[in-house]
Structure prediction request, 329 residues.
Amino acid sequence: MATRIFSGIQPTGTLHIGNYFGAIRNWAALQADHDCVYCIVDYHAITIDIDSKALRAASRAMALDLMACGIDPKRSILFIQSSVPEHAELAWILGCVTSYGDLARMTQFKEKSAGRKFISAGLFNYPILQAADILLYKAQGVPVGEDQVQHLELSRRIARRFNARFGEFFPEPEPIVEEKGGRLKSLADPTKEMSKSAGEPNYIGVMEEESSIRKKVRSAVTDTGLVAGEEMSPGVANLFEILELATELSGDLSIVVELHADFKAGKLMYSRLKEVVFDSLMDVLRPIRQRRAELEASGKVEEILASGTKKASAIARENIARVREMVGL
Ligand code: TRP
Prediction:
């Protein structure tokens, strides 16, 4: 039996190229030889105050984005978390084998709760729900970014504690960390990670208008903030990183080699680097947008998600039934 993979992404409305190169492209690649379950985690999204009117649409939009990026619902299970309420039930049960002290140590909780007027218990319990997502499918591998490794470690502890208390049932899930592309920086401030929450100038959306992407690439910060001991400024290094990721698949790295040599020789024009970055990036993004438009026009997203729910539910129901029995419910 192929290894089961599980991963989740919040329905934030739109993917940026950091998400794509750092995560989703790897999710798509894993489909070749794994049994993959991919989940749009809307229960997680409500741990902070978000626009609930927009949430439903954002979840559908994320499904379209993921499919356009290569998640194939014929090969993988793709569904929206809240359509399988067993996630919430298992989260409750797992909460009872999770230590308060462990949760209080989560750095993401500290970051996300800092400066908030209202900190929900949901935000605190977030990693328990994440463990439930993974364990509900008895997944062994979890492709995640570096920032989720601590949550994964907690998922493993939770699995161990459940197994110790109620009997061997859950495998301990291993993180699969994508080394390359996971660390794209903001073009406007290359000392910061590319992220949506930092605001519009800090990320490039996979579906963003071409003219807007061109503008962001052209005005990317290049020569300030040289870090001692590093030969390239963070901004230039980031542009090279994007270029490498974007040209990787074509198999033709000659342009990267050429521009690197120019840089070493001190004759690289940043305007040329930016031009090439933009062109290579658009070569990657264009077919994704094309697929996105076709999928949207086909009007099949509801049907596809319903079928994903059905497949996910079948696994979830079987496992939760066993858990209930073990726990004595
Ligand atoms: N916490 C993850 C993130 O912010 C999203 C997530 C929720 C997840 N459930 C998951 C990732 C289960 C992996 C497995 O990126």
